[in-house]
Design brief:
Elements: E1 5-8, E2 15-16, H1 18-31, H2 42-45, H3 50-55, H4 61-77, E3 84-85, H5 89-98, E4 102-110, H6 111-120, E5 129-133, H7 142-153, E6 160-164, H8 167-174, E7 179-183, H9 190-195, E8 200-202, H10 205-214, E9 222-224
Parallel strand pairs: 1-4, 1-6, 4-5, 6-7, 7-8, 8-9
Antiparallel strand pairs: 2-3
Length: 226
């Protein structure tokens, strides 16, 4: 049987949020007198907590906190809306809901921004809960968030799946015994997801929808295409 609870990452899984994130990073870096982020480096920044990413390029904790403040000012004003929904996502969500599944979002994005994006989306009503992080979060909290979702929905790990595009998502799922599914249309790589222990990786949302419709069992580290 397919999972009864589906947990989704947000950035790189439901939405391509690169434009808003990139502009916010550039705003923060230039405010500190640094060069904007080269586009080729952007995928490394989408998924990890921002404090972790800024710490790699800034000299100290004070500079990191200033960058976070500047980023969030820009993101609150305009960056949160600069994204697109991946093709096939609305159809996938509709299929899951019509099949009786419960849906929730588990994201490293600050809680209020995550909720703002989901509430503004035409498919936002499909999600019964959004698990973001606090403004002071410095590390991935995916494992704790997944555990909280299992408690809140009173669902066993065996009846849940987590879909995400980075190793943080896979690690959070595996820490709780939840089926770990990788989204290849996001910012992580096939190698990253499989090395993290993904049970399967999907080339497109349509491939995931097809698997769900057939109720086919997953092989070890299986890759599924539409």
């Amino acid at each position: 049987m397919p999972p009864g609870l589906w947990l989704f990452d947000l950035d790189g899984t439901l939405i391509d949020s690169a434009p808003g994130i990139h502009s916010g990073i550039d705003h923060a870096l230039t405010a500190l007198g640094l060069a904007p982020l080269p586009a080729a480096q952007l995928p490394q920044w989408i998924g990890p907590p921002l404090r972790e990413s800024f710490a790699r390029v800034l000299p100290d904790a004070a500079a990191v906190e200033t960058a976070i403040t500047r980023y969030r000012e820009h993101y609150a004003a305009q960056g949160w809306a600069a994204h697109r929904v991946y093709p096939g996502i609305p159809e996938l969500l509709r299929q899951l809901v019509d099949g009786g599944a419960q849906l929730a979002i588990v994201t490293s994005k600050v809680d209020n921004f995550a909720r703002q994006i989901v509430q503004a989306a035409p498919w936002g009503h499909a999600f019964a809960a959004v698990y973001g992080v606090g403004a002071a979060s410095a590390h991935s909290e995916k494992a704790a968030q997944v555990a909280q979702a299992l408690r809140d929905f009173a669902v066993s790990a065996a009846d849940a799946a987590m879909l995400g595009d980075r190793h943080y998502d896979i690690a959070g799922a595996r820490a709780n015994g939840v089926q770990a599914l990788g989204a290849l249309w996001g910012y992580g790589t096939r190698t990253e997801l499989l090395d993290a222990g993904a049970d399967a990786v999907f080339a497109t949302p349509a491939a995931l929808a097809q698997w769900h419709a057939t109720h086919a069992p997953l092989g070890v580290a299986q890759e599924l295409h539409p």
